[in-house]
Design goal:
single chain, 616 residues, alpha+beta, seven-stranded mixed sheet, five-stranded mixed sheet
Length: 616
Protein backbone atom coordinates (compact mmCIF):
# COMPACT_ATOMS: atom_id res chain seq x y z
CA UNK A 1 0.00 0.00 0.00
CA UNK A 2 2.76 2.42 0.96
CA UNK A 3 4.56 2.27 -2.43
CA UNK A 4 1.31 2.93 -4.30
CA UNK A 5 0.49 5.88 -2.03
CA UNK A 6 3.93 7.39 -2.51
CA UNK A 7 3.66 6.90 -6.28
CA UNK A 8 0.35 8.71 -6.31
CA UNK A 9 1.79 11.51 -4.18
CA UNK A 10 4.76 11.97 -6.53
CA UNK A 11 2.42 11.90 -9.55
CA UNK A 12 0.22 14.53 -7.94
CA UNK A 13 3.24 16.75 -7.17
CA UNK A 14 4.46 16.38 -10.79
CA UNK A 15 1.01 17.40 -12.11
CA UNK A 16 1.05 20.47 -9.84
CA UNK A 17 4.49 21.44 -11.06
CA UNK A 18 3.48 21.08 -14.70
CA UNK A 19 0.31 23.09 -14.08
CA UNK A 20 2.28 25.82 -12.32
CA UNK A 21 4.80 25.95 -15.18
CA UNK A 22 2.05 26.18 -17.80
CA UNK A 23 0.23 28.82 -15.77
CA UNK A 24 3.41 30.85 -15.41
CA UNK A 25 4.17 30.51 -19.11
CA UNK A 26 0.72 31.81 -19.96
CA UNK A 27 0.73 34.54 -17.34
CA UNK A 28 -0.36 37.87 -18.63
CA UNK A 29 2.57 40.04 -19.72
CA UNK A 30 2.58 43.82 -19.68
CA UNK A 31 4.65 46.28 -21.64
CA UNK A 32 4.32 50.03 -22.03
CA UNK A 33 5.42 52.24 -24.89
CA UNK A 34 5.77 55.99 -24.45
CA UNK A 35 5.87 58.18 -27.56
CA UNK A 36 7.32 61.69 -27.65
CA UNK A 37 6.29 62.32 -31.26
CA UNK A 38 4.20 65.46 -30.59
CA UNK A 39 6.22 67.80 -28.37
CA UNK A 40 4.83 70.89 -30.10
CA UNK A 41 1.35 69.94 -28.81
CA UNK A 42 2.57 68.68 -25.41
CA UNK A 43 0.92 65.32 -26.06
CA UNK A 44 2.32 61.95 -24.98
CA UNK A 45 1.24 58.83 -26.83
CA UNK A 46 0.91 55.72 -24.66
CA UNK A 47 0.52 52.09 -25.68
CA UNK A 48 -0.17 49.36 -23.14
CA UNK A 49 0.44 45.91 -24.59
CA UNK A 50 -1.21 42.97 -22.82
CA UNK A 51 -0.09 39.50 -23.90
CA UNK A 52 -1.50 36.08 -23.01
CA UNK A 53 -4.78 37.51 -21.84
CA UNK A 54 -7.39 34.98 -20.73
CA UNK A 55 -9.95 37.33 -19.20
CA UNK A 56 -13.25 38.15 -20.87
CA UNK A 57 -13.17 41.68 -19.48
CA UNK A 58 -10.26 43.95 -18.56
CA UNK A 59 -10.33 47.15 -16.56
CA UNK A 60 -7.62 49.82 -16.77
CA UNK A 61 -7.34 52.67 -14.30
CA UNK A 62 -5.46 55.96 -14.22
CA UNK A 63 -4.34 56.85 -10.65
CA UNK A 64 -6.23 59.64 -8.92
CA UNK A 65 -3.15 60.69 -6.95
CA UNK A 66 0.62 60.44 -6.78
CA UNK A 67 2.24 58.79 -3.74
CA UNK A 68 4.06 61.41 -1.69
CA UNK A 69 1.66 64.22 -2.53
CA UNK A 70 -1.33 63.25 -0.34
CA UNK A 71 -3.79 65.16 -2.48
CA UNK A 72 -6.14 64.13 -5.26
CA UNK A 73 -4.88 65.16 -8.70
CA UNK A 74 -7.38 63.20 -10.83
CA UNK A 75 -4.79 62.45 -13.52
CA UNK A 76 -7.45 61.01 -15.84
CA UNK A 77 -8.59 64.57 -16.58
CA UNK A 78 -5.61 64.92 -18.96
CA UNK A 79 -5.99 61.66 -20.90
CA UNK A 80 -8.08 61.17 -24.04
CA UNK A 81 -8.70 58.96 -27.10
CA UNK A 82 -8.73 55.67 -25.20
CA UNK A 83 -9.01 52.71 -27.60
CA UNK A 84 -8.25 48.98 -27.56
CA UNK A 85 -7.26 46.68 -30.44
CA UNK A 86 -6.90 42.90 -30.63
CA UNK A 87 -4.12 40.98 -32.36
CA UNK A 88 -5.96 41.29 -35.69
CA UNK A 89 -6.19 45.06 -35.42
CA UNK A 90 -9.93 44.96 -34.72
CA UNK A 91 -11.31 47.60 -32.35
CA UNK A 92 -12.62 46.16 -29.10
CA UNK A 93 -15.61 47.51 -27.23
CA UNK A 94 -14.68 49.90 -24.40
CA UNK A 95 -16.72 51.82 -21.85
CA UNK A 96 -15.85 54.29 -19.13
CA UNK A 97 -16.85 52.87 -15.74
CA UNK A 98 -16.11 55.94 -13.63
CA UNK A 99 -13.80 58.95 -13.79
CA UNK A 100 -10.59 56.88 -13.60
CA UNK A 101 -11.48 53.44 -15.04
CA UNK A 102 -12.20 52.04 -18.51
CA UNK A 103 -13.57 48.56 -19.21
CA UNK A 104 -12.57 46.51 -22.26
CA UNK A 105 -14.60 43.60 -23.64
CA UNK A 106 -11.77 41.30 -24.71
CA UNK A 107 -14.00 38.79 -26.59
CA UNK A 108 -11.43 35.99 -26.38
CA UNK A 109 -8.54 38.17 -27.58
CA UNK A 110 -5.19 36.98 -26.22
CA UNK A 111 -3.07 39.94 -27.28
CA UNK A 112 -4.49 43.42 -26.74
CA UNK A 113 -3.02 46.86 -27.34
CA UNK A 114 -4.53 49.82 -25.51
CA UNK A 115 -3.72 53.28 -26.80
CA UNK A 116 -4.43 56.69 -25.33
CA UNK A 117 -2.96 60.17 -25.20
CA UNK A 118 -1.95 62.35 -22.25
CA UNK A 119 -1.66 66.13 -22.22
CA UNK A 120 1.57 67.17 -20.50
CA UNK A 121 1.67 70.89 -19.71
CA UNK A 122 3.31 71.10 -16.29
CA UNK A 123 6.78 69.86 -15.30
CA UNK A 124 5.83 69.97 -11.61
CA UNK A 125 7.00 66.95 -9.62
CA UNK A 126 3.54 65.35 -9.47
CA UNK A 127 2.54 66.12 -13.07
CA UNK A 128 3.99 65.56 -16.56
CA UNK A 129 5.39 67.70 -19.35
CA UNK A 130 6.37 67.31 -22.99
CA UNK A 131 7.87 70.14 -25.02
CA UNK A 132 10.58 70.88 -27.53
CA UNK A 133 13.02 71.52 -24.67
CA UNK A 134 12.48 68.44 -22.50
CA UNK A 135 10.07 65.83 -21.18
CA UNK A 136 9.22 64.95 -17.60
CA UNK A 137 7.07 61.98 -16.66
CA UNK A 138 5.59 61.32 -13.25
CA UNK A 139 4.35 57.79 -13.86
CA UNK A 140 1.08 58.19 -11.96
CA UNK A 141 0.06 60.96 -14.37
CA UNK A 142 0.78 58.91 -17.51
CA UNK A 143 0.60 55.13 -17.04
CA UNK A 144 -2.65 53.24 -16.42
CA UNK A 145 -2.70 49.94 -14.56
CA UNK A 146 -4.61 46.75 -15.21
CA UNK A 147 -6.98 46.06 -12.33
CA UNK A 148 -5.87 43.02 -10.35
CA UNK A 149 -2.46 42.95 -12.08
CA UNK A 150 -0.44 45.66 -10.36
CA UNK A 151 1.89 42.98 -8.98
CA UNK A 152 3.10 41.87 -12.42
CA UNK A 153 6.45 42.97 -13.87
CA UNK A 154 6.39 45.35 -16.81
CA UNK A 155 8.69 46.85 -19.39
CA UNK A 156 8.79 50.39 -20.73
CA UNK A 157 10.05 51.56 -24.11
CA UNK A 158 10.46 55.23 -25.01
CA UNK A 159 10.10 55.99 -28.74
CA UNK A 160 10.61 59.12 -30.84
CA UNK A 161 13.24 60.34 -28.43
CA UNK A 162 15.31 63.12 -30.08
CA UNK A 163 18.80 61.95 -30.95
CA UNK A 164 20.53 64.42 -28.62
CA UNK A 165 18.33 63.68 -25.60
CA UNK A 166 19.12 61.32 -22.73
CA UNK A 167 16.84 59.60 -20.24
CA UNK A 168 17.36 59.77 -16.47
CA UNK A 169 15.33 57.41 -14.29
CA UNK A 170 15.63 55.05 -11.36
CA UNK A 171 14.26 52.16 -13.45
CA UNK A 172 16.52 49.26 -14.42
CA UNK A 173 17.89 49.69 -17.94
CA UNK A 174 17.48 46.83 -20.42
CA UNK A 175 20.09 46.03 -23.12
CA UNK A 176 17.92 47.54 -25.84
CA UNK A 177 18.17 51.35 -26.18
CA UNK A 178 15.63 53.40 -24.23
CA UNK A 179 14.01 50.36 -22.66
CA UNK A 180 13.53 49.70 -18.96
CA UNK A 181 12.13 47.11 -16.57
CA UNK A 182 9.96 47.46 -13.48
CA UNK A 183 9.27 44.74 -10.91
CA UNK A 184 5.64 45.81 -10.69
CA UNK A 185 3.33 48.73 -11.33
CA UNK A 186 4.24 50.45 -8.06
CA UNK A 187 7.88 50.54 -9.13
CA UNK A 188 6.97 51.75 -12.61
CA UNK A 189 5.16 54.84 -11.42
CA UNK A 190 7.56 55.41 -8.52
CA UNK A 191 10.36 55.93 -11.04
CA UNK A 192 9.89 59.25 -12.85
CA UNK A 193 11.71 59.99 -16.11
CA UNK A 194 13.52 63.21 -17.01
CA UNK A 195 14.41 63.43 -20.71
CA UNK A 196 16.32 66.09 -22.57
CA UNK A 197 19.81 67.48 -22.99
CA UNK A 198 21.05 66.53 -19.57
CA UNK A 199 24.32 67.08 -17.76
CA UNK A 200 25.42 64.13 -15.66
CA UNK A 201 27.48 64.03 -12.48
CA UNK A 202 28.03 61.28 -9.96
CA UNK A 203 29.52 60.27 -6.65
CA UNK A 204 29.63 57.08 -4.61
CA UNK A 205 28.74 56.32 -1.01
CA UNK A 206 29.32 52.80 0.30
CA UNK A 207 30.31 51.85 -3.25
CA UNK A 208 26.84 52.69 -4.58
CA UNK A 209 26.59 55.20 -7.46
CA UNK A 210 24.48 58.33 -7.04
CA UNK A 211 23.74 60.42 -10.13
CA UNK A 212 22.71 64.01 -10.64
CA UNK A 213 20.94 64.45 -13.98
CA UNK A 214 20.48 68.19 -14.50
CA UNK A 215 18.40 69.95 -17.12
CA UNK A 216 19.24 73.56 -18.09
CA UNK A 217 22.51 73.70 -16.19
CA UNK A 218 24.10 75.99 -18.81
CA UNK A 219 21.56 78.74 -18.13
CA UNK A 220 22.00 78.58 -14.37
CA UNK A 221 24.53 79.65 -11.77
CA UNK A 222 24.40 76.34 -9.92
CA UNK A 223 27.82 75.61 -8.33
CA UNK A 224 27.92 71.95 -9.36
CA UNK A 225 31.04 70.97 -7.40
CA UNK A 226 29.58 72.41 -4.22
CA UNK A 227 26.23 70.70 -4.80
CA UNK A 228 27.95 67.37 -5.40
CA UNK A 229 29.98 67.78 -2.21
CA UNK A 230 26.92 68.66 -0.12
CA UNK A 231 24.72 65.93 -1.59
CA UNK A 232 27.42 63.32 -1.07
CA UNK A 233 27.83 64.44 2.53
CA UNK A 234 24.17 64.17 3.40
CA UNK A 235 23.89 60.74 1.75
CA UNK A 236 26.87 59.71 3.85
CA UNK A 237 25.14 61.08 6.96
CA UNK A 238 22.09 58.91 6.33
CA UNK A 239 24.30 55.90 5.58
CA UNK A 240 26.02 56.41 8.92
CA UNK A 241 22.65 56.71 10.61
CA UNK A 242 21.10 53.49 9.24
CA UNK A 243 24.23 51.46 8.54
CA UNK A 244 23.29 50.54 4.97
CA UNK A 245 21.94 51.84 1.69
CA UNK A 246 19.31 49.43 0.42
CA UNK A 247 19.44 50.21 -3.30
CA UNK A 248 21.85 49.66 -6.20
CA UNK A 249 21.71 53.22 -7.58
CA UNK A 250 20.10 56.56 -6.79
CA UNK A 251 19.24 59.39 -9.19
CA UNK A 252 18.56 63.06 -8.43
CA UNK A 253 16.42 64.38 -11.32
CA UNK A 254 16.96 68.15 -11.33
CA UNK A 255 15.13 70.69 -13.48
CA UNK A 256 16.34 74.28 -13.33
CA UNK A 257 13.45 76.57 -14.21
CA UNK A 258 11.11 79.02 -12.47
CA UNK A 259 9.77 76.62 -9.87
CA UNK A 260 10.64 75.24 -6.43
CA UNK A 261 9.45 71.77 -5.51
CA UNK A 262 10.53 68.20 -4.95
CA UNK A 263 9.11 64.71 -4.60
CA UNK A 264 10.53 61.53 -3.16
CA UNK A 265 10.74 58.14 -4.86
CA UNK A 266 12.19 54.79 -3.91
CA UNK A 267 15.59 55.19 -5.55
CA UNK A 268 15.30 58.67 -7.02
CA UNK A 269 13.84 62.07 -6.33
CA UNK A 270 12.80 65.06 -8.41
CA UNK A 271 13.96 68.58 -7.60
CA UNK A 272 13.13 71.88 -9.29
CA UNK A 273 14.74 75.22 -8.53
CA UNK A 274 15.23 78.70 -9.93
CA UNK A 275 18.30 78.68 -12.23
CA UNK A 276 19.60 82.10 -11.17
CA UNK A 277 19.20 81.90 -7.36
CA UNK A 278 22.15 79.77 -6.31
CA UNK A 279 24.42 82.72 -5.52
CA UNK A 280 22.08 83.79 -2.75
CA UNK A 281 23.08 81.94 0.46
CA UNK A 282 19.49 81.60 1.72
CA UNK A 283 18.34 80.25 -1.66
CA UNK A 284 21.19 77.75 -1.83
CA UNK A 285 20.30 76.69 1.70
CA UNK A 286 16.67 76.12 0.66
CA UNK A 287 17.62 74.05 -2.40
CA UNK A 288 20.04 71.87 -0.48
CA UNK A 289 17.67 71.43 2.44
CA UNK A 290 14.84 70.25 0.16
CA UNK A 291 17.27 67.90 -1.61
CA UNK A 292 18.15 66.36 1.75
CA UNK A 293 14.47 66.20 2.76
CA UNK A 294 13.53 64.29 -0.39
CA UNK A 295 16.51 61.97 -0.07
CA UNK A 296 15.74 61.19 3.59
CA UNK A 297 12.31 60.02 2.43
CA UNK A 298 14.21 57.16 0.83
CA UNK A 299 14.23 55.69 4.32
CA UNK A 300 11.34 57.47 6.04
CA UNK A 301 8.19 56.81 3.92
CA UNK A 302 9.65 54.66 1.17
CA UNK A 303 10.91 52.08 3.64
CA UNK A 304 9.67 53.09 7.09
CA UNK A 305 5.97 53.75 6.57
CA UNK A 306 2.50 53.29 8.05
CA UNK A 307 0.99 50.13 6.62
CA UNK A 308 -1.69 52.09 4.75
CA UNK A 309 0.98 53.69 2.52
CA UNK A 310 1.72 50.63 0.45
CA UNK A 311 0.59 48.70 -1.44
CA UNK A 312 -1.45 51.66 -2.64
CA UNK A 313 -5.05 52.11 -3.59
CA UNK A 314 -4.66 54.67 -6.36
CA UNK A 315 -8.37 55.39 -6.72
CA UNK A 316 -9.01 57.03 -3.35
CA UNK A 317 -7.16 58.87 -0.59
CA UNK A 318 -4.92 56.86 1.70
CA UNK A 319 -6.11 58.50 4.91
CA UNK A 320 -3.53 58.23 7.65
CA UNK A 321 -2.94 59.98 10.96
CA UNK A 322 0.80 59.43 10.57
CA UNK A 323 1.89 62.03 8.01
CA UNK A 324 3.54 63.96 10.85
CA UNK A 325 5.95 61.00 11.08
CA UNK A 326 6.39 60.76 7.32
CA UNK A 327 6.93 64.48 6.74
CA UNK A 328 7.48 66.20 10.08
CA UNK A 329 10.31 63.90 11.15
CA UNK A 330 11.70 64.11 7.61
CA UNK A 331 11.87 67.87 8.19
CA UNK A 332 13.64 67.42 11.51
CA UNK A 333 16.45 65.09 10.50
CA UNK A 334 17.93 67.31 7.75
CA UNK A 335 18.10 70.07 10.37
CA UNK A 336 20.12 68.10 12.90
CA UNK A 337 22.20 66.23 10.31
CA UNK A 338 23.10 69.47 8.50
CA UNK A 339 24.60 70.69 11.76
CA UNK A 340 26.48 67.44 12.36
CA UNK A 341 27.92 67.63 8.87
CA UNK A 342 29.04 71.23 9.34
CA UNK A 343 26.78 72.58 6.59
CA UNK A 344 24.92 74.44 9.34
CA UNK A 345 26.42 76.00 12.44
CA UNK A 346 24.83 75.49 15.83
CA UNK A 347 23.53 79.04 15.58
CA UNK A 348 21.84 78.25 12.28
CA UNK A 349 20.27 75.12 13.76
CA UNK A 350 18.90 77.08 16.70
CA UNK A 351 17.53 79.69 14.29
CA UNK A 352 15.67 76.98 12.39
CA UNK A 353 13.93 75.82 15.56
CA UNK A 354 13.17 79.44 16.49
CA UNK A 355 11.55 80.13 13.10
CA UNK A 356 9.41 77.00 13.17
CA UNK A 357 8.35 77.68 16.73
CA UNK A 358 7.52 81.31 16.02
CA UNK A 359 5.45 80.33 12.98
CA UNK A 360 3.49 77.67 14.86
CA UNK A 361 2.59 80.03 17.67
CA UNK A 362 0.88 82.37 15.17
CA UNK A 363 -1.51 79.69 13.86
CA UNK A 364 -5.01 79.98 15.35
CA UNK A 365 -5.75 76.31 14.59
CA UNK A 366 -3.03 75.12 16.97
CA UNK A 367 -5.68 75.45 19.68
CA UNK A 368 -8.10 72.96 18.12
CA UNK A 369 -6.31 70.83 15.48
CA UNK A 370 -4.02 67.99 16.54
CA UNK A 371 -1.13 66.53 14.58
CA UNK A 372 -3.14 63.41 13.83
CA UNK A 373 -6.08 65.46 12.61
CA UNK A 374 -3.88 67.62 10.38
CA UNK A 375 -2.56 64.47 8.69
CA UNK A 376 -6.07 63.51 7.62
CA UNK A 377 -7.14 67.07 6.80
CA UNK A 378 -4.39 67.52 4.22
CA UNK A 379 -6.29 65.51 1.63
CA UNK A 380 -9.03 68.14 1.69
CA UNK A 381 -7.41 71.48 2.43
CA UNK A 382 -9.66 74.33 3.45
CA UNK A 383 -9.87 77.59 1.53
CA UNK A 384 -8.06 79.36 4.37
CA UNK A 385 -5.36 77.00 5.52
CA UNK A 386 -3.35 79.38 7.66
CA UNK A 387 -6.39 80.15 9.81
CA UNK A 388 -8.22 76.84 9.89
CA UNK A 389 -5.37 74.31 9.92
CA UNK A 390 -1.94 73.54 11.24
CA UNK A 391 0.76 71.86 9.18
CA UNK A 392 2.03 68.40 10.06
CA UNK A 393 5.33 69.52 8.55
CA UNK A 394 5.67 72.44 10.95
CA UNK A 395 4.37 70.92 14.19
CA UNK A 396 5.72 67.49 13.23
CA UNK A 397 9.20 68.99 13.04
CA UNK A 398 8.76 70.65 16.44
CA UNK A 399 7.53 67.41 17.99
CA UNK A 400 10.54 65.65 16.45
CA UNK A 401 12.88 68.10 18.20
CA UNK A 402 11.18 67.67 21.55
CA UNK A 403 10.88 63.89 21.22
CA UNK A 404 14.60 63.62 20.51
CA UNK A 405 15.47 65.69 23.58
CA UNK A 406 13.00 63.80 25.76
CA UNK A 407 14.48 60.45 24.70
CA UNK A 408 18.00 61.62 25.47
CA UNK A 409 16.89 62.95 28.84
CA UNK A 410 15.02 59.81 29.91
CA UNK A 411 17.77 57.43 28.87
CA UNK A 412 20.63 59.58 30.17
CA UNK A 413 21.98 59.96 26.66
CA UNK A 414 21.82 56.28 25.76
CA UNK A 415 19.09 56.59 23.12
CA UNK A 416 17.76 59.23 20.77
CA UNK A 417 15.26 59.62 17.92
CA UNK A 418 17.71 58.11 15.42
CA UNK A 419 17.61 54.92 17.51
CA UNK A 420 13.84 54.88 17.08
CA UNK A 421 14.22 55.24 13.30
CA UNK A 422 16.71 52.36 13.21
CA UNK A 423 14.33 50.29 15.35
CA UNK A 424 11.47 50.97 12.94
CA UNK A 425 13.68 50.14 9.97
CA UNK A 426 14.67 46.75 11.39
CA UNK A 427 11.31 45.82 12.88
CA UNK A 428 9.09 46.75 9.96
CA UNK A 429 10.92 47.40 6.70
CA UNK A 430 13.27 44.45 7.08
CA UNK A 431 10.20 42.24 7.46
CA UNK A 432 8.40 43.76 4.50
CA UNK A 433 5.62 45.50 6.42
CA UNK A 434 4.63 48.96 7.58
CA UNK A 435 4.01 50.00 11.16
CA UNK A 436 0.47 49.99 12.54
CA UNK A 437 -1.79 52.82 11.41
CA UNK A 438 -3.83 52.35 14.57
CA UNK A 439 -0.93 52.39 17.03
CA UNK A 440 1.51 54.64 15.20
CA UNK A 441 5.02 54.60 16.66
CA UNK A 442 4.27 55.23 20.33
CA UNK A 443 4.90 51.62 21.36
CA UNK A 444 8.13 51.61 19.35
CA UNK A 445 9.36 54.78 21.04
CA UNK A 446 8.56 53.19 24.39
CA UNK A 447 10.44 50.02 23.43
CA UNK A 448 13.55 52.06 22.71
CA UNK A 449 13.19 54.29 25.78
CA UNK A 450 12.08 51.61 28.21
CA UNK A 451 9.35 53.87 29.62
CA UNK A 452 5.85 55.13 28.83
CA UNK A 453 5.31 57.99 26.40
CA UNK A 454 1.53 57.95 26.80
CA UNK A 455 1.25 61.51 28.09
CA UNK A 456 3.67 62.85 25.43
CA UNK A 457 1.59 61.42 22.59
CA UNK A 458 -1.73 62.26 24.26
CA UNK A 459 -0.73 65.89 24.68
CA UNK A 460 1.31 66.77 21.60
CA UNK A 461 0.31 64.25 18.91
CA UNK A 462 -3.31 63.30 19.63
CA UNK A 463 -4.08 66.47 21.59
CA UNK A 464 -3.57 70.21 21.38
CA UNK A 465 -1.83 70.90 24.69
CA UNK A 466 0.67 73.74 24.41
CA UNK A 467 4.19 72.38 24.03
CA UNK A 468 6.35 73.35 27.04
CA UNK A 469 9.35 74.25 24.89
CA UNK A 470 11.46 75.51 27.79
CA UNK A 471 11.12 72.20 29.60
CA UNK A 472 12.43 70.13 26.69
CA UNK A 473 15.13 72.62 25.68
CA UNK A 474 16.28 72.79 29.27
CA UNK A 475 17.28 69.12 29.15
CA UNK A 476 20.11 70.16 26.79
CA UNK A 477 21.04 73.41 28.53
CA UNK A 478 19.14 75.50 26.01
CA UNK A 479 16.73 78.30 26.80
CA UNK A 480 13.87 79.93 24.98
CA UNK A 481 13.90 83.70 24.82
CA UNK A 482 10.97 85.77 23.64
CA UNK A 483 11.01 89.33 22.47
CA UNK A 484 8.25 91.68 21.57
CA UNK A 485 7.64 92.37 17.89
CA UNK A 486 8.00 96.16 17.70
CA UNK A 487 6.48 96.40 14.23
CA UNK A 488 2.85 97.57 14.25
CA UNK A 489 0.58 94.58 13.78
CA UNK A 490 -2.03 94.25 11.01
CA UNK A 491 -2.52 90.48 10.70
CA UNK A 492 -1.75 90.55 6.96
CA UNK A 493 0.58 87.88 5.59
CA UNK A 494 2.03 88.15 2.09
CA UNK A 495 5.52 86.81 2.62
CA UNK A 496 7.09 83.71 1.11
CA UNK A 497 9.38 81.42 3.07
CA UNK A 498 10.28 77.76 3.42
CA UNK A 499 8.28 77.59 6.64
CA UNK A 500 5.17 79.23 5.25
CA UNK A 501 5.29 77.02 2.15
CA UNK A 502 5.03 73.92 4.34
CA UNK A 503 1.69 75.19 5.58
CA UNK A 504 0.78 76.74 2.25
CA UNK A 505 1.23 73.78 -0.02
CA UNK A 506 -0.37 75.11 -3.20
CA UNK A 507 2.73 75.85 -5.25
CA UNK A 508 1.06 77.86 -7.98
CA UNK A 509 -0.47 80.06 -5.30
CA UNK A 510 3.01 80.78 -3.98
CA UNK A 511 4.05 82.19 -7.37
CA UNK A 512 1.83 85.22 -6.81
CA UNK A 513 3.26 88.67 -6.14
CA UNK A 514 4.45 89.42 -2.61
CA UNK A 515 1.78 92.15 -2.64
CA UNK A 516 -0.97 89.52 -3.01
CA UNK A 517 -2.39 88.70 0.41
CA UNK A 518 -1.98 85.02 1.27
CA UNK A 519 -3.73 85.25 4.61
CA UNK A 520 -5.37 87.55 7.11
CA UNK A 521 -5.02 86.15 10.62
CA UNK A 522 -8.36 85.43 12.26
CA UNK A 523 -9.37 88.14 14.73
CA UNK A 524 -6.60 90.54 13.67
CA UNK A 525 -7.15 94.26 12.93
CA UNK A 526 -7.10 93.59 9.16
CA UNK A 527 -9.58 90.73 9.63
CA UNK A 528 -11.94 93.02 11.54
CA UNK A 529 -11.48 95.77 8.93
CA UNK A 530 -12.62 93.41 6.16
CA UNK A 531 -9.31 92.76 4.38
CA UNK A 532 -9.46 89.38 2.65
CA UNK A 533 -7.18 86.62 1.48
CA UNK A 534 -6.58 87.16 -2.24
CA UNK A 535 -6.69 90.95 -2.10
CA UNK A 536 -3.80 92.70 -3.85
CA UNK A 537 -2.23 95.67 -2.05
CA UNK A 538 -1.92 98.63 -4.42
CA UNK A 539 -0.98 101.36 -1.95
CA UNK A 540 -0.71 102.16 1.76
CA UNK A 541 -1.43 105.73 2.86
CA UNK A 542 -1.25 106.86 -0.77
CA UNK A 543 2.24 105.31 -1.20
CA UNK A 544 2.43 102.88 -4.12
CA UNK A 545 3.26 99.32 -3.12
CA UNK A 546 5.60 97.10 -5.14
CA UNK A 547 7.58 93.96 -4.29
CA UNK A 548 6.36 93.82 -0.72
CA UNK A 549 7.47 97.31 0.34
CA UNK A 550 4.18 97.76 2.23
CA UNK A 551 5.96 96.19 5.20
CA UNK A 552 8.53 99.00 5.25
CA UNK A 553 5.73 101.56 5.09
CA UNK A 554 3.95 100.02 8.08
CA UNK A 555 7.20 99.67 10.02
CA UNK A 556 7.62 103.46 9.99
CA UNK A 557 4.19 104.04 11.51
CA UNK A 558 3.39 104.04 15.20
CA UNK A 559 1.26 101.66 17.23
CA UNK A 560 -2.15 103.20 17.77
CA UNK A 561 -2.30 104.84 14.36
CA UNK A 562 -4.32 103.72 11.31
CA UNK A 563 -3.15 102.67 7.84
CA UNK A 564 -5.30 103.08 4.74
CA UNK A 565 -4.87 100.06 2.44
CA UNK A 566 -5.85 100.53 -1.21
CA UNK A 567 -6.76 97.04 -2.41
CA UNK A 568 -7.78 95.35 -5.64
CA UNK A 569 -10.38 92.62 -5.16
CA UNK A 570 -11.28 91.09 -8.48
CA UNK A 571 -12.36 94.00 -10.68
CA UNK A 572 -13.03 96.32 -7.74
CA UNK A 573 -10.69 98.76 -6.04
CA UNK A 574 -11.48 99.55 -2.43
CA UNK A 575 -9.94 101.15 0.64
CA UNK A 576 -9.78 99.54 4.08
CA UNK A 577 -8.62 101.43 7.16
CA UNK A 578 -6.67 99.10 9.42
CA UNK A 579 -5.83 100.01 13.05
CA UNK A 580 -2.21 99.31 13.96
CA UNK A 581 -1.81 97.60 17.32
CA UNK A 582 0.93 95.96 19.34
CA UNK A 583 1.56 92.45 18.07
CA UNK A 584 -0.07 89.72 20.19
CA UNK A 585 2.71 87.36 19.09
CA UNK A 586 6.30 87.13 20.20
CA UNK A 587 9.39 86.28 18.23
CA UNK A 588 11.31 83.41 19.77
CA UNK A 589 14.95 82.54 19.88
CA UNK A 590 16.81 79.47 21.12
CA UNK A 591 20.09 80.12 22.91
CA UNK A 592 22.59 78.12 24.91
CA UNK A 593 22.09 78.76 28.61
CA UNK A 594 25.31 80.10 30.15
CA UNK A 595 24.25 78.60 33.51
CA UNK A 596 23.82 75.07 32.09
CA UNK A 597 25.15 72.27 34.27
CA UNK A 598 27.80 69.79 33.08
CA UNK A 599 25.04 67.16 32.77
CA UNK A 600 22.97 69.45 30.54
CA UNK A 601 25.99 70.33 28.39
CA UNK A 602 26.80 66.63 28.04
CA UNK A 603 23.26 65.93 26.83
CA UNK A 604 23.44 68.88 24.43
CA UNK A 605 26.67 67.57 22.91
CA UNK A 606 25.16 64.10 22.53
CA UNK A 607 22.17 65.64 20.78
CA UNK A 608 24.27 67.80 18.48
CA UNK A 609 26.86 65.16 17.61
CA UNK A 610 24.71 62.03 17.52
CA UNK A 611 26.28 58.62 17.37
CA UNK A 612 27.46 56.36 14.60
CA UNK A 613 26.29 52.82 13.95
CA UNK A 614 28.17 49.81 12.61
CA UNK A 615 28.53 50.17 8.86
CA UNK A 616 28.30 47.20 6.54
Amino acid sequence: MAPITMKRIFSFIWILLVFATLTQAKEIRLSYELSLSHPENHIFGVNVMIRNNSQKFLELTMPAWTPGTYELQDHARNMFQFTALNEKGDTLSTSRMDFDTWKITASGSKNITITYKVLGLYPDAAACYLGADRAYVNGAAVFMYVEGRKNLPATLKVVHLPDDWQIATGLTSLPEPNQFAAKNYDELIDSPLLMGKLKWFSFKVAGIPHYLAIWNLADSNMPVKRVLHNFQNFVRQVYQMFGELDYTKYVFLIQLYDNFDGLEHRNSCTLSYYPDKFNDPASYDDFTWVGFHEYFHNFNVKRIRPNILGPFNYKRPAYTKRLWICEGLTDYFPDILFQRDGFWTKKRLYRQLSEELTLFQTLPARKWMSLESSSIQFWHLSDNKLNLEISYYNKGELVGWMLDLELLHRTNGEHNLADVMRYLYRKYYKHGVGFSEKLGIQRDVEAVAGSSFQSFFDNYVRGTTDIPYSKFLGFAGLKLVAREDTMPYTGIQTFKSKSISRVYDTKRELKNSQDSIKNVIMGSPAWQAGVSKGDVILAVDNQTVTDGNWVAIIRKKSIGSTAAFLLRRGTRVLTKKVPLIKSPFKKYGVLEDPTATPAQIRLRNLWLNGKKVHLK
